[in-house]
Predict the structure.
Amino acid sequence: MPNVPIHEAKNKLTALRREAITGKEFILANAKMKDDKPVSLISTVLLDELCETKSFSFEWIDEPTDESEYYSLYNPEIGVYGVGTTRRESIVDFIDNIVEYAEVYWNDLPFYLSPSGGRREHYWYLRRIIRCQGDSDKIYRVLDLDKVLGD
């Protein structure tokens, strides 16, 4: 992979972007700062495909009984819940909760991406949610929630 100094990348950004779209990755490095970490310029389509390999699974951990009238939907990859008096209500609550968590996560990436935080692996899942830009219908499809709803 080609390494491109930042000062050179600034002057060639349009050309680098065109090549990145085709699948080529460029490593951008700041030669003036020794401890600076490199950054990749890569096709968003390729990143989307990578994220799609992370599938969401779901469990109904609570269903109505004599003691409780609620359904609880749980996602073990991220630890998000949705609760409601119907399955559909639980799914709507789940979507609201995962959108909220994704926004909180994205607004404090250094904290959540810390290797010691235990939530670094959520990044690839939540990136799929963030790319939906809050559109509940898109999120429903991305999460493949039809399979959870049943009939």
